[in-house]
Write a structure and sequence with these properties.
Elements lengths: L1 H5 L19 H12 L2 H6 L16 H29 L3 H9 L5 H30 L4 H17 L1 H28 L14 H13 L5 H5 L5 H29 L9 H5 L3 H11 L1 H18 L5 H18 L5 H25 L1 H4 L11 H17 L5 H14 L9 H20 L5
Helix pairs in contact: 2-8, 2-11, 4-9, 4-11, 4-16, 6-7, 6-13, 6-14, 6-15, 6-16, 7-14, 7-15, 8-11, 8-13, 14-15, 16-18, 16-20, 18-20
């Protein structure tokens, strides 16, 4: 019990047995989500919005990519906001919340998947920080940058709510200044034709942008459980994240235009302008909040499996693990695996939103360790997953071949207008609504 006494009242609890303090205001959360919306991965990943073909040649013009990114981000931001509300209402982290949706034991399935994807994304973040730092400082020992980023990540995760407030007070202002500066500088460069190309794969690009927003859904409640109100949780996640992701991706698309769509050279335009190195350093340093969010949410997910383990022990161990992975692993092929895991959370959100706002969640979910299994919700989730994979089988070896075989057996060919994210979300939501309506007690 000594840990409870030692913990500051305005800091996150160490175990799931302790209540979560409601201390984060709208502005605290806005700063947190705004910083997550600006990422080095957003700059390099902007190429995915252009829907690259087999030869990695952008199929969308830059202007179409910007419009697709705005549309996808707005929709994804609303979905993220919807995922934020249940955490604020129930006061529990994201994977513990799924006990109410699926039952305690069944919630372990998405929990394990989330642990795998969060460790993977945390590793990616350390790699991208180290790579950017090498470019920033003109070389140096790669492992030193990885370790420094890992240490910063560890410190942030030990005091997560204090870190959120620091982001609001200091970091956000520096990021805004850097963004404005780079917009001015890059827009003054000789840009190529931004309208050349076909808009035929518009929804593929929009789906890519939407998927980035959705990737934060499995950890939203880890932070919004500390929100002072549901309105603050929804507004901050929807507006602040959506706005900054749009700003960051448009900037990334402009940088891509300057390097002829080569994502490996996308950091170059930032450093080649006057004072570019100084302002780019702001992005490199604040990228640690991305790895912080991934590592802290991994710890929250693990606590759904072992609720009484101290989160500080978990985050220190996890930070060390992703440092080792960042130094030892080749992550190129792992990206497709992470994308596959992320895709399963899109339809899960459809199930969660409908059940929480329309059916069981309105009466209050059972999130205890004895929450009963709800197989019907698993069925709705599975329908959504199947819908996603039929439209977008991905590039995961035997798994992708399985779904292309199913496509052939059904005589189904996805059209370019089909959004895997939107249609899988809708399919899961419709099935959940049907199950809820059929299982509702007779009004008489």
């Amino acid at each position: 019990m000594s840990t409870v006494v030692d913990r500051p009242r305005d800091e996150a609890p160490y175990t799931l047995d302790e209540p979560a303090p409601k201390v984060l205001s709208f502005w605290d959360q806005s700063a947190f989500w705004a910083n997550l919306g600006v990422s080095l991965l957003a700059f390099s990943g902007a190429a995915t919005v252009l829907a690259p073909g087999a030869d990695n040649v952008p199929q969308l013009p830059i202007v179409a990519g910007i419009v697709a990114m705005v549309v996808g981000t707005v929709i994804g931001g609303i979905m993220l906001g919807l995922a934020a509300v249940p955490g604020a209402r129930a006061g529990v982290p994201a994977m513990m919340l799924l006990r109410g949706l699926f039952g305690t034991r069944l919630s372990y399935v998405p929990t394990v998947l989330n642990i795998l994807q969060m460790i993977g994304w945390g590793t990616f973040e350390l790699i991208v920080i180290a790579d950017a730092a090498e470019q920033l400082f003109g070389g140096g020992p790669h492992w030193v940058y990885v370790v420094i980023a890992g240490v910063i990540t560890t410190v942030l995760t030990i005091w997560p709510l204090g870190s959120v407030r620091v982001l609001r007070r200091y970091v956000t202002a520096a990021v805004v200044i850097a963004l404005v500066y780079f917009y001015i500088q890059l827009s003054r460069q000789p840009l190529p034709n931004l309208t050349h190309g076909s808009w035929s794969h518009f929804w593929v690009g929009a789906d890519a942008a939407l998927a980035v927003s959705i990737s934060w859904v499995p950890m939203a409640a880890d932070y919004t459980r500390h929100s002072k109100s549901e309105r603050a949780a929804f507004g901050a996640a929807t507006v602040a994240y959506g706005l900054t992701q749009i700003v960051a991706y448009v900037l990334g698309l402009l940088a891509l235009a300057l390097v002829a769509g080569d994502s490996d050279k996308v950091f170059g335009p930032f450093q080649h302008v006057a004072l570019g190195t100084l302002f780019f350093a702001v992005f490199v340093l604040r990228e640690a909040d991305q790895s912080f969010a991934n590592v802290y949410s991994t710890a929250m997910s693990i606590q759904n499996l072992v609720p009484r383990v101290d989160r500080r022990v978990l985050t220190v161990g996890l930070s060390g693990l992703i440092m080792v992975f960042a130094l030892a692993l080749n992550m190129d092929n792992y990206y497709d695996f992470l994308s596959l895991i992320g895709s399963v959370f899109v339809p899960m959100l459809g199930v969660l939103v409908v059940d929480f706002f329309c059916f069981g969640g309105r009466r209050g979910w059972d999130v205890s360790e004895r929450a009963p299994a709800r197989w019907s919700m698993i069925v709705a989730w599975a329908v959504g997953i199947a819908t996603y994979q039929l439209i977008n089988p991905g590039n995961m070896g035997w798994w992708s071949r399985l779904w292309t075989d199913v496509q052939d057996a059904l005589g189904f060919t996805p059209s370019s207008w089909m959004s895997a994210s939107l249609l899988s979300f809708t399919a899961a939501a419709v099935v959940t609504a049907a199950i809820g309506a059929l299982s509702r007690p007779d009004a008489s």
